[in-house]
Amino acid sequence: MKTYEMAVKAAKKSYFSASIASASSRPAQLFSIIRSLTSLEGQPNLNNNSTHSCEAFASFFAEKVLLLRHDLPANLDTIKELEASRLSSGPVLDHFDRISPADVDRLLQAGKPTTCPLDPCPSWLIRACPDEVWAPLGDIINLSLGTGIFPGELKAAVVRPLLKKTSLDPLDLSNYRPVSNLPFLGKVIERAVAEQLGRFLDETSALDPFQSGFRAGHGTETALVALTDDLRRQLDRGGSGLLILLDLSAAFDMVDHELLDHRLADVGIQGTVLQWLRSFLSGRGQRVALGGELSSRHSLVCGVPQGAILSPMLFNIFMCPLAQLVRSFGLGCHQYADDTQLYLLMDGHPDSAPDTLTRCLEAVAGWLRGSRLKLNPSKTEVLWLGRSDMGLRGQLPSLAGVQLVPTSSVKSLGVIFDTSLSMEAQITAITKAAFFHLRQAKQLAPYLSRPDLATVIHATVTSRLDDCNSLYVGLPLRLTQKLQRVQNAAARLIMGSSLRDHIHPVLYQLHWLPVEYRIRFKVLVLTFKALYGLGPSYLRNRLSWYVPQRNLRSANKNILKIPGHKEVRLASTRARAFSVAAPIWWNTLSQETRALQDLTSFRRACKTELFHQAFGQGAA
């Protein structure tokens, strides 16, 4: 019996290890495997669900967009924009450069080897046969770019319905989102266009500088760092703020092609390039795959195609005017694709919001209406930030006829904010989720090797501790300790240590920085990226090199200027605002580390310094 049990355990260990290794670089698939191995309820099997057919889903997804569009006909603002002059006075992109065989190789290797049911052969086979297919592929791509025509055969998407949350009713079609799969060759052509279009947009600074969605060096964390820095500095000055999170319905699906065409021309897209983008967007359709069957084809009359490489870039261009409009009223605005955050900084603690906010919200609602985008005022959230005993006593203005009401907390780009930016609710949510996944990992631990267990824990636990942890600067000790307890438990599980064992040797053996130093490491890496053009300009503009009044030896030591006491008054804010904490921590690095200008070298040297600080100079 014992031999049998050992054989079963060995078989499980081999199977689990192979499953985890196959998905180690694909987080979504790894999560799915972990759910299946721990017998957690996953997505319902729609293949065996006779209630919904693929035709029912296809009709629902198509009609949802058509109904929204029907409710948003072109108005006077739409017509005025379409009739306005479309001549760009700046640089233009009117043709594509031809791509070489080496470019084809790079384009093929850059993408994930996903295969669409409409593909004539698996994508991995194309990548595995360079001598046979790369030259014809290059000809196809260059023909498309040169003629300004995107092949019609590649415009159809195969959609799979995915339940938004496992807790939702699977019988309600509105609880599903369409997950689109596009032909592999179409994505390769898209990638060739995206490289040239993206380079042009970067060189001409055509995109809004505060748009962080799907841009190199930008992300939700950089956007939130800039937002919280502004808010914390405002609170430090004795002021207050209002944060407004706009909610839009199916924004990517609602993009009007005529308006997008106009806005593309505004940023300098002309000639063959504009013709190609028109061809790429027109004549598209989708079919739903379910239970081994495909629905009939449903045409898409608007929107940028879901799952397409170019869609985020095109959507960012479409949304450019909104941020400019908001800032014209003196409000701040950060965007991550269709997530738009408006914030108003106010001196003192006024009883009611100023008229500027009312006018701005009216203009925003009007612009969205003219752009044929559906605003959900009832789902738009508002957070007042300031002293708890001095909140707004008057009413906030309305948005599209709906009265705005402040809440005690909001979730912005996945992070929970409260009125004092304490991050307490966020830390509580993170630790709860992390311990849940630790319990899952503990179930698998007997059947996993240490490296495989570490892979699982990194994907499900420690990655949560690191996500947006640059916002945790200056947390009270009790909150930092909550995060540290999660890391300690994860380290002990990997190493098989008991609670009686001191945690420092365990962390040291894993070469893990403690939570406090992981936060500092993230801030320093963001600082490096901002200083050397690898991050957003809105972070770079918060930092400045120290220039002494006299020629001192420190002039050439890459020191950053630290805001003085006149600029930052409160010790608590002084320790938490990025624009203050970043230069303080940067200046404590060794001169050799500060002098580095390669990101990989800097990360290595920075971690080594912090590791020495955490565990002593003898630490390797």
For the record, the count of structural domains works out to 4
Cα(first) to Cα(last) distance is: 46 Å
| Overall pLDDT | 88
If you compute it from the alpha carbons, what radius of gyration comes out, rounded to the nearest whole angstrom? Answer: 27 Å
Structural class: alpha+beta
Count every helix, treating DSSP H or I runs of 4 or more residues as helices.
Answer: 23
**Quaternary state, please?**
single chain
The parts where pLDDT drops under 50 for at least 5 residues are none
Shape: globular
Question: What key phrases describe this protein's structure?
Answer:
620 residues; alpha+beta; Alpha-Beta Plaits; 4 domains; five-stranded mixed β-sheet; 23 helices; 49% helix; globular
How would you explain this protein's 3D organization?
Helices cover 49% and strands 11% of the residues. The chain has helices at residues 2-22, 27-37, 54-70, 76-83, 101-110, 123-127, 130-147, 184-204, 220-236, 257-266, 271-281, 311-327, 355-370, 424-444, 450-466, 477-495, 503-510, 515-531, 537-540, 571-574, 578-588, 591-594, 599-615, and strands at residues 156-163, 176-181, 240-246, 248-249, 284-290, 293-294, 298-300, 332-336, 339-346, 374-375, 381-385, 398-399, 402-403, 406-407, 409-412, 415-418. The chain has 620 residues and is an alpha+beta fold. Strand 8 and strand 9 (339-346) form a beta hairpin. The strands form five sheets. Strands 1, 2, 5, 6 and 7 form a five-stranded mixed beta sheet that branches. Strands 8-9-3-11-14 form a five-stranded mixed beta sheet. It has a two-stranded antiparallel ribbon with strand order 4-10.
